[in-house]
Amino acid sequence: MDYDVIVVGGGAAGLMATAMAARRGKRVLLLEKMDQAGRKLRITGKGRCNLTNTASLRDTLPHIGSSTAGSTKKPGQTGGIWLRNAYGRFFNRELMEWFEERGVALVEERGGRVFPASGKSIDIFLALIGELEASSNVTIRKNATVKSLETLEGQATGVVLDRGERIGCRHIVLATGGLSYPTTGSTGAGYRLAAEVGHSVVKPLPSLVALKCKEKIPEELIAFQLKNVQLTLCDSLSCAPAFRSGVGEMTFAPDGLAGPLVLSASRIATRPLHEGRTLKALIDLKPGLTADQLDRRLLADIDQNGSRIFNDALRLWLPAELIPLALPQLHIEYYKRLHQLTGEERRRLGRWLKGVEFTLTGTHDWNEAIVTQGGVSLSEVNPKTMESRLVHGLYIVGELLDLDADTGGYNLQIAFSTGHAAGEAV
Q1: Cα–Cα dist 190/397, whole Å
Q2: Helix-then-strand count for the chain, H and E
Q3: Which of these CATH numbers, 1.10.8, 3.50.30, 3.10.450, 3.40.50, describes 291-354?
Q4: Burial degree of 148 (CB within 10 A; 0-12, 13-18, 19+)
Q5: pTM of the model
Q6: Per-residue three-class SS string for 367-391
Q7: How confident is the model at residue 239 (pLDDT cuts 50, 70, 90)?
Q8: Domain boundaries, the chain
Q9: Are 348 and 329 in contact (CB under 8 A)?
Q10: 355-378, pLDDT tens digit by residue?
């Protein structure tokens, strides 16, 4: 039996595309390679599913980037603008209403993050799969791996499964996901399928991921959380800032840096690091003070605590866990009295507090990456419909596209909005 639409992949984008196409009366076949659909969706947000963010469209767009914008440019210049049309028709409010109409209560948390009120991502999945199972227009096949796409004179005509079975259709929605969390079925097969019919694929790389550094992390610091700090990335040669975060939180991993600020910074760092370049990460421990203000504070503290030894007095300005990192880098005698510090030593301490330096050498792997950076070139996809500009009737959605965003619900919104656009267009 042939179908109007074949959706390849049962993640967030594929499920939404299937639901929208079926509501328009199309006969849809959803092909899922795993024994269950929505595996990645069910573990996202540590099992809580941060499905969107309440930020305005204007405030959302800078959080979205594309590799074609250049790895050292401010994120959002290409990706956000490309999504304006799709977001104009189905954005955060529409998405929230879609789930609320299907019985999923939602809550907004810090930073505009939206979660199911139950705190369980399974509720989001069940609303989607329930919509499909209730439709007579939808057929779901699991353990079905697509080997190739079939086209004729630039028109999509069907798919061939790994066992040789051919299934015909008028439209194909390619929604196989990227490479992050490969155990959920995200093996990057969609990039190969798209490339085989002529699409350009920007090399996929792990993003929203911890960063490795050359320096040894003291054992006391592993898993320690720094709060109210600012992170800056610089090119190691030019020292020009490539990224500067807001004030937030980060942690230390055995081989480098992790936590919310680092995950966001990884979007800028991942491509140059994988190209063999070296970046510097600077942690400002006192972002609320200028260098001059900090120096005046150090002078006042030294005057009031002049008899304390330097090793002990560092607790005036640092958490105790950071002292093993600070002492070897400051090159100040451990047992020197504060009133014995020279002006240069005091200024050295101030510079360190405003820019603890790490040399970045790489990223963690796909098993830890939250999303994929890179993918099918946006220039080859219609931003209104998600239809390929090379193959009529082929639609490419979700993480397969050369789009990635900060944490906070922005990536799932991309998946739902692009899936919705394709489902409306087929």
Answers
A1: 10
A2: 14, 21
A3: 1.10.8
A4: middle
A5: 0.91
A6: CCCCEEEEEECHHHECCCCCEECCC
A7: low
A8: 3-205+371-425, 211-285+357-363, 291-354
A9: no
A10: 999 999 999 999 999 999 999 999
